[in-house]
Amino acid sequence: WDKLSIPADLDGTWYGVIFRSKRRPFVHNIGLYEADRLAHEEAVSSGGLMMYWYGTPDALGSNLATCVWTSREAAKVASALPLHKKAASKSSKAYETFELARYRLVARDG
Questions:
Q1: φ, ψ for residue 94, nearest 5 deg
Q2: What is the DSSP letter of 38?
Q3: Closest by alpha carbon to 20, among 68, 55, 59, 71?
Q4: Count of CB atoms within 10 A of residue 78's CB?
């Protein structure tokens, strides 16, 4: 967060999705990263995706990924696209646990 710079005059509301996960040990070759990359490209093309950040799993496999969208509707449209569904279908093989959290992000001028 210390690298995040927000202009003081920014004013708006956005939709955020946080994906917390813990990778299964020794699961490396199921094509998850490629599926995620393709789903990201698909989301960018669909419009509405403002930011995507994916961390590096720690020694225990825990990780955090974040998407910020122009709206909840834009996120819902992208999550229904075929490449997102394909990436999501790999979740049960790749992760011991995962959870989604959704947030309304609000910035007010000043």
A1: -90, -30
A2: H
A3: 55
A4: 23
**Residues making up the chain, counted from first to last:** 110
The domain defined by 12-49+66-107 carries CATH number 1.10.10: no
Burial (CB count <10 Å: 0-12, 13-18, 19+), residue 84: buried
Full-model pTM? 0.82
Q: Looking at the DSSP assignment, which residues form a beta bridge with residue 101? A: 18
State residue 25's pLDDT score: 86
Find, among 66, 52, 54, the residue nearest to 100 by Cα.
66
Residue 80 to residue 61: CA distance in whole angstroms:
27
Side-chain half-sphere CA neighbours of 29 within 13 A:
0
Which amino acid belongs to residue 74? Answer: A
The chain-wide mean pLDDT, for the chain, equals 89
- pLDDT 10s digits, 28-56: 768 888 999 999 999 999 999 999 998 88
